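Continuing from the previous page of notes. For each protein in this section, the sequence appears first, followed by its structure tokens. Read the first protein now.
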Amino acid sequence: MLEQQFDFRTSSGENNPIHAMELNRILGMTEKIMHTEGRMQTIIPFFSVARYSHQIPMIPGVLTPSFCLILQGTKKLHLGQDIIHYHAGDYLVSVIDLPASAQIIGANKQSPYIGLRIDFTTKEIASVVMEAGINVKPKDKKLNTGAYVGKSDADLLELFIRLLKLIDKPQEAHFLSSLIKREMIFHLLMGEYGHFFLQQVFIDQQGDGIGKAIEWIKQNYSRPFTVEDLAKLTNMSVSALHHKFKAVTTMGPLQYQKQLRLQEARRLMLSGSLNVTTAALEVGYENSSQFSREYRRLFGQSPFKDIKALQKNVAVETLENS
């Protein structure tokens, strides 16, 4: 199991007072607009703020394409066999849907966890790549997991400052926010981990192969299938499909399907629209007992107890992208 530790205060062997000052400035701007618990959607459709004033235990969920910056606090992320800790000044980028679990550590009323989130799509990334004339095909042909942690710099923090200044200016926000978002994507593409972005754009644009496999499962997770069926659909051998799929998502195709099913069933039950049996059928389970066993294995308790506990918890929102 790989465990990664990130801390901007020691990343270069010494403190960075300018970076810390910019981070504190953003924190101050954020606290002026965010006083409640949980996640708040701003007037900018793709921009949200999260605040938690207490520790939150590990909560399974799904990473969706997004860029998340921690302003204060620490988060622990389980992604496949990897454990990633990231702190104030670190950011997490996810470029495909990835089942994962997240935990907020050490938060309290005096020092709450605060994070910012930008949602994007691979099409938006591809658009920036083409307009900027960046080479789409990555030099490194080795597939990497579709998420990574990096460290913010002054230019990136300045873009967040500009975005936060638009929160109380609806007309300007409507026009300028999307331009700032494109600048952020460009900055990430040109940064140290830009090749991850490029690789995922390349995968997404392929007419067949691993990108098609991931998209097919996302659209058809309630349908039964075999790895052999998926291999034929994507014009790949079974061994190649399994190897590449696991490299990108940290798990095999059937496990990926199972986690998507269970996450969707959890969402349906949490919304109050379906009971356990109906939710199980809705996501493709024919046997409610099997559903309950696999649900308990992923979430740690029975569907009924899990949903009841979540409904009492202010952290009902998924934590992965906060």
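Done with the first. The second protein uses the same format. Note its length before scrolling.
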Amino acid sequence: MNYTTLLEEVKQYALHFFKSHEENPFLYHNQDHTEQVVKAATQMASYYQLNDRDVFIVLTAAWFHDMGYYTGPAEGHEKNAADLAAVFLRQHGVDEADITEVQQCIMATCMNGQTPAGLKAQIVTDADLFHWGTDDFAERNKLMRKEAEARLNKKISKEDWQRGTIKLLSSHHFKTTYGQQILEPKKQKNLEKLRMKFEEEATPINISTKPVSLPEAVTSKKTKDRPEKGVETMFRISSGNNQRLSDMADNKAHIMISTTSIILSVILSVLLRKLEDNPHLIIPTMLLLVVCVTTMVFAILATRPNLSDGTFTQQDIDNKKVNLLFFGNFYRMSYDEYANGMNAMMNDRDFLYGSLTKDVYSQGVVLSRKYRLLRKAYDIFMFGIVLSVVAFAFATIIFGH
């Protein structure tokens, strides 16, 4: 079966379909949106290097996925679109297995909170909402609101629409790794902009004749003016920097362990056997042996993990004393206990930011210990290796003959 030729026929059918239904006032679910979905699906299909058959299934589903709006009510339009696709594909002699997969991909665009089965269906689902992770989000969202008002024949307030959109974007997750890695960051930025706009426009100004105490006013202003995005960026950068410093410390410790291991292997396999014939090398050899062993011990201590008991109590949650972001504080707890604790933390902004603060602080404490031990290891090795070389040279010159 020539999927490339068949796909071109699907495209021509779709374009003719939309042209013949121009009287329907769909401002969002129209040919423009469909072509954007096809373009996004093509982009992701290329990213995953799909074969011709899979590309045909994905793009056919993308062309048909919103045609159901023109043949029936908005509710259940996915089923109508899937039926249209099946009729067209059967007329063109497409295998039933291919038709079934096309229908499954179309039905996957139904926003029911379930994860579509299979990569092809996930690609179509993410392509349908591709604009959520692009700069076109604001403009497309306005068109969606206008279409909803025309379809429902009623005015939807800007506040209600923004509230619903925020809820929708907050609960949404891209299904493909492409969407999660490439589209999700921009989607989060769009969501943050929408939240800020909603708070600015929807929060009424409270005019009260009651006197407001200065401390409360100052506290409220500071809380309101604090840039939430800036705080999150600060925590992300701090945690990332600490992680990189920790990796650097581990690498330096590994270098020191490897170096001293090589020297020790030479001492034990070569020098010790020659000490009987060269007694003047006993002291320099023992000095070098002690230096290497001591250095290795400090380097190992710098990378040696330290775990707490891995448990917490409900009182710790209530008092906001436990840091659930570090596995060492919960690895012995049951999942339900941990999930309850995480829910409590996510629903309490002070608890959440307090945990992030503790996490960054704890990373700093661990880093301080690592670098102190690592510095001692390097100091011992540096001065010890110099003394050992001097001792070997002195013993060889004075007693070697």
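What the second structure shows: The chain has two domains: 3-202, 239-399. The first helix runs from residue 3 to 20. We return to this in next week's lecture.
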